[in-house]
Please model this.
Amino acid sequence: MTDSWAWEYDPDPGFVIGGIDNLAFVAKVEERADELVRAAAALYLDGAKYTGTSPRMQEEAVDASGMFVYQVVPRHQRVYIRQVTFLGQ
Model:
């Protein structure tokens, strides 16, 4: 894949965040995703050569307005955002 860490919506933004029209909430999700990428890059220094199992999917709260589910895949050097839930505020 690539030689640098990043995050992405999986399978695509339309599927994961489609229908959420609160741009401030989506921006908070994406800011937190940036932080998760930096943490994963520090934890898995050479992620492309990682041979262990990928961590399980995890949940992350975004204030009281919602949450998202993500998975770190070191071999891909990616944080995949799998589901975003906006509770409204």
User: Anything to note?
Assistant: Residues 23-43 form the longest helix (21 residues). The mean pLDDT is 92.
